Amino acid sequence: MFGRSLLPSLWRQGEVSRRDREHPFVTIQREMNRLFDEFFRGFDLTPFEESMGRFSPAIDIKEDEKEYTIKVELPGMDEKDVEVILGDNTLTIKGEKKEEKEDKDKNYYYMERTFGAFQRTIPLPADIDSQKADARFKKGVLTISLPKTEEARSKGKKITIKAE
């Protein structure tokens, strides 16, 4: 379930009578939990406790007549920390961020470690020319260019709009 239940702890322990379970508020709560679970299932969201050490970078996808351009914000990461895989109608981007900070002085010692892994899979149309795909990494931004095939470029037809 996504998030915490709003029902009393006795309900979760099974110590609530059958009459209380049939109460309208209990029924509404159960239905709301089901709706939230179904809604968030498609977004790959997990409760806070399960998501420790994971993050999801911001991704922008743009399409024009020649290509698809995907930009992924990966601050503090290097190109060696990221892997890009172009498969059958999917683009998978995965990586791991590891950072250590250490500061010592005569009177103190400070050490901080942060880490996080991610994997994003983006469905793609079949009209990608995978031989000409290109990925570049600059200042924490990964830019992936996926050119369309010649056949896909010629398929598009602009339709004029007529005012009435």
Strand order of the largest sheet: 1-2-7-6
User: Structural class given helices, strands, pairing?
Assistant: alpha+beta
Unreliable spans are 9-13, 46-51
Shape by Cα distribution: flat
Instruction: Work out the strand percent.
Output: 35-45%
Count of alpha/pi helices: 4
Q: Can you count the beta strands? A: 7
Distance between the termini: 52 Å
> How much helical structure, as a percent, in the residues?
10-25%
> At the first level of CATH, what is the class of the largest domain?
Mainly Beta
Alpha-carbon Rg, integer? 24 Å
How many domains make up the coordinates?
2
Give the averaged pLDDT, no decimals.
77
The largest pleated sheet is described as:
4 strands, antiparallel
CATH architecture group name of the largest domain? Sandwich
Order of helices and strands: HHHEEEEEEEH
CATH topology title of the largest domain: Immunoglobulin-like
Furnish the topology, listing elements before pairings:
Layout lengths: L8 H4 L5 H4 L2 H18 L17 E5 L3 E7 L8 E6 L2 E15 L4 E15 L10 E5 L2 E7 L2 H6 L9
